[in-house]
UniProtKB/TrEMBL annotation:
Domain of life assignment: Eukaryota
Biological source species: Alectura lathami (Australian brush turkey)
Any single GO CC term annotated in Swiss-Prot or TrEMBL for this entry: plasma membrane
Stored PANTHER family: NETRIN RECEPTOR UNC5, NETRIN RECEPTOR UNC5D
Gene Ontology biological-process annotations: axon guidance
Domain ZU5: 353-493
Function of the protein: Receptor for netrin required for axon guidance. Mediates axon repulsion of neuronal growth cones in the developing nervous system upon ligand binding.
Transmembrane segments: 191-214
Membrane topology label: Single-pass type I membrane protein; Single-pass membrane protein
Xref: InterPro entries: DEATH-like_dom_sf, Death_dom, Ig-like_dom, Ig-like_dom_sf, Ig-like_fold, Ig_I-set, TSP1_rpt, TSP1_rpt_sf
Protein name: Netrin receptor UNC5
Ig-like domain ranges (all copies): 1-59
Length: 764
């Protein structure tokens, strides 16, 4: 006997016409349906034995289909030329089980023209009318100069005015008119006064009756609510009277409650809807937990079924809250907890995005850890016997610089100071950027904030100027400046081929519901500081990096970004329908102004035994670049592999003073400057030094410096702060033919010594 099993259940072909079990024992599915997905097994049996085949997994996928187009939107321009759009979604049907996503555009735009609105305006007042029997005359005006058109505003103000035409001397019923009006006013005010007093008396009486009835109803349960805020739900402290004898509502009315008992337990708690009235038992309340403290004033409260109003206290989160003083934080009430966490998070972020140190004549290097932002103070920039406290900071996400049109903020807003100090030798400020460097597609500007808070342009990167110098590397811009302040890089796309580099990272964590697992996909600027802020947020939320971040080239071609979750194991995990793919408009990605884009997906396990998750995250720009992140992880922290956040972790050395901050020893540096600053019959040798170090633009800036070679070497130090590639510098010197000994022969110990003997005869 041969039979087929689907998910360990026998298949009866007589009950399903779509399934045919042939005489040769093959199983035929005539037309694939979603319900046909499953694990199929063939089983043969006779009187001797029973055999089973290997299970065959059948997954029926569905390719996505477009829905109908929506109606065209209103023209976005209130006046003049603009555009209107319509959209459609890939939900007819939505792609399932790895089916193909819809091809084509999800948004269409067309140009439109709106008539400009014209606000109305009053014409001049008419002449005063003849005095009426009521001793008044009036005048009018109309809103016709011009009348409102195309949605313009109507005129503001009155269209008619009246006034007494006898200056109060007009007589009615043998009394002056002003006396009659005053009597009417007094009568009206008396009526209003008495009506108000009557309403107040009625309200007080109703309140007294309500309070009396309420206290009677509460007294039947043997409990008085002392804190009125408990009526609104939440966690509050209750005080109880002595239990009244014979109350049938109590579990044991003869037991006297011990109001002095106080038990504290720790554990994660998930706050549910306060309207949920499910009775909480003592056993479920007192299960051992780990992170949140729940304090029950008395076990007597459990017997009354009012445990949901117990007071709870938060415990310091590891890595975020201060250690060793949990007791102080434990006294914070629930209504203040959110504010406390928010303030603490912002303080932590600010502390990590600002560095301060005191520098002297020997100079040094200042770094904001793991952000790519650094400041190099050359030797001699600060006067001898002087010391300055210099700081370097990154402004919060909400930058004060708002780019215009399609302009893009390419990196963080960086502040160095003190702003009232100026140096004798240019310092090097390094700011990371997210543009794919190409002068044919980008026009990049450096801007500085004035003391009045406005932003002014300092220079264009391609501009020839002697005030400052910008060297644009693939991932950072190195700027030589003489004055401190707040600086930012702005990119102006010249063509649709301008590329903004985005870093795609996926974080995951378990939710309050133990069966749910949250995936959070971030698309942020490809700068270390943008990734740093995402890491800080995820550490606070308990998220873990699931895969090495990848680079996405996002073009300025107005096409949107699509993020989807693919290849979810069909019988282990599931995702809510129509949520496996999310689409983000182009403008939101392109004009994000340093704010990371965040999309969340919620997966649900079928059973708690499932601890492994494998899927793919696809991030693609329509008609553009695509990146796929392969997720293969354990949802249990103890089994998960740790992925490094930063390639260069410089958090241990935010500030370096003196010789330790420089890769080139001071004695070698002096000899190089003395050799290349001297004019030569073949030309100024510092120009050859600049060209060999890929500095071929705006050489007039170096010509204005007292030591051009020293400034070129400062720029080299800024560019090679992580690798310190002395071999490349030595090769450049050898190619020029001015030296035969390699700088790299200097031992690592000599470079790291804090005090150099400047007469050391190494190098040149």
């Amino acid at each position: 006997q041969v039979e087929w099993l689907k998910n360990e259940e026998p298949i009866d072909s007589n009950l399903d016409e779509n399934i045919d079990t042939r005489a040769d024992h093959n199983l035929i599915i005539r037309q694939a349906r979603l319900s046909d997905s499953g694990n199929y097994t063939c089983m043969a049996a006779n009187i001797v034995a029973k055999r089973r085949s290997m299970s065959a997994t059948v997954v029926v996928y569905v390719n996505g289909g477009w829905s109908s187009w929506t109606e065209w939107s209103n023209c976005n321009a209130r006046c003049g030329r603009g555009w209107q759009k319509r959209s459609r979604t890939c939900t007819n049907p939505a792609p399932l089980n790895g089916g193909a996503f819809c091809e084509g555009m999800s948004v269409q735009k067309i140009t439109c023209t709106s008539l400009c609105p014209v606000d109305g305006n009053w014409e001049v007042w008419s002449e005063w009318s003849v005095c009426s029997p009521e001793c008044e005359h009036l005048r009018v005006r109309e809103c016709i100069a011009p009348p409102p058109r195309n949605g313009g505003k109507y005129c503001e103000g009155l269209s008619q005015e009246s006034e007494n035409c006898t200056e109060g001397l007009c007589i009615q019923d043998k009394k002056p008119l002003h006396e009659i009006k005053s009597q009417n006013i007094e009568t009206a005010s008396d009526i209003a006064l008495y009506s108000g007093l009557g309403a107040a008396v009625i309200a007080v009486a109703v309140l007294v009756v309500g309070v009396t009835l309420y206290r009677r109803s509460q007294s039947e349960y043997g409990v008085d609510v002392i804190d009125s805020s408990a009526l609104t739900g939440g966690f509050q402290t209750f005080n109880f009277k002595t239990v009244r004898q014979g109350n049938s509502l109590l579990l044991n009315s003869s037991m006297q409650p011990d109001l002095t008992v106080s038990r504290t337990y720790s554990g994660p708690i998930c706050l549910q809807d306060p309207m949920d009235k499910e009775l909480m038992t003592e056993s479920s309340l007192f299960n051992p937990l780990s992170d949140i403290k729940v304090k029950v004033q008395s076990s007597f409260m459990v017997s009354l079924g009012v445990t949901e109003r117990a007071e709870y206290h938060g415990k310091a989160h590891s890595g975020t809250f201060p250690h060793g003083n949990n007791r102080g934080f434990g006294t914070i009430q629930a209504r203040n907890k959110a504010t406390y966490i928010q303030n603490l998070s912002s303080i932590s972020t600010r502390n990590e995005l600002k560095t301060t140190a005191i520098f002297g004549h020997l100079g040094g290097r200042l770094v904001v850890p793991n952000t790519g932002v650094s400041l190099l103070i050359p030797h001699g920039a600060i006067p001898e016997e002087g010391s300055w406290e210099i700081y370097l900071a990154i402004s919060p996400r909400e930058s004060s610089l708002q780019p215009e049109g399609t302009d893009v903020l390419l990196g963080p807003e960086v502040t160095c100071g003190p702003s009232d100090m100026s140096v004798s030798t240019p310092f090097a400020l390094t700011i990371p950027h997210c543009a794919e460097v190409n002068s044919e597609h980008w026009n990049i500007h450096l801007k500085k904030r004035t003391q009045q808070g406005k932003w002014e342009e300092v220079m264009s990167v391609e501009e020839e100027t002697t005030s400052c110098y910008c060297l644009l590397d693939p991932y950072a811009c190195h700027i030589l400046l003489n004055s401190f302040g707040t600086y930012a890089l702005i990119g102006e796309p010249i063509s649709d081929c301008a590329v903004r580099q985005l870093k795609v990272a996926v974080f995951g964590c378990l939710s309050c519901n133990s069966l749910d697992y949250n995936l959070r996909v971030y698309c942020m600027d490809n700068t270390p500081c943008a990734f740093q802020e995402v890491v800080l947020d995820e550490r606070f939320q308990g998220g873990q990096l699931l895969e090495e971040p990848k680079l996405l080239h996002f073009k300025g071609n107005t096409f949107s970004l699509q993020i989807s979750v693919l290849d979810i194991p069909p019988f282990l995990w599931r995702i809510k329908p129509f949520t496996a793919c999310q689409e983000v408009p182009f403008s939101r990605v392109w004009c994000s102004n340093q704010k990371p884009l965040h999309c969340a997906f919620s997966l649900e396990r079928y059973t708690p035994a499932t601890t492994q998750l494998s899927c793919k995250i696809c991030v693609r720009q329509v008609k553009g670049h695509e990146q796929i992140l392969q997720i293969q992880t354990s949802i249990l922290e103890s089994e998960r592999e740790t992925i490094a956040f930063f390639a260069h972790d410089d958090s241990n050395f935010p500030a370096q003073m003196g010789a330790k901050a420089f890769k080139i020893p001071y004695s070698i540096r002096q000899r190089i400057c003395a050799t290349f600053d001297t004019p030569n019959a073949k030309g100024k040798d510092w120009q050859m030094l600049a060209q060999k170090n890929s500095i071929s633009r705006n050489l007039s800036y170096f010509a204005t410096q007292s030591s051009p070679s020293a400034v070129i070497l400062d720029l080299w130090e800024a560019r090679h702060q992580h690798d310190g590639d002395l071999d490349s510098l030595a090769c450049a010197l050898e190619e020029i033919g001015r030296t035969h000994s390699k700088i790299s022969d200097i031992t690592e110990t000599e470079i790291e010594e804090p005090d150099f003997n400047y007469s050391r005869q190494n190098g040149l």
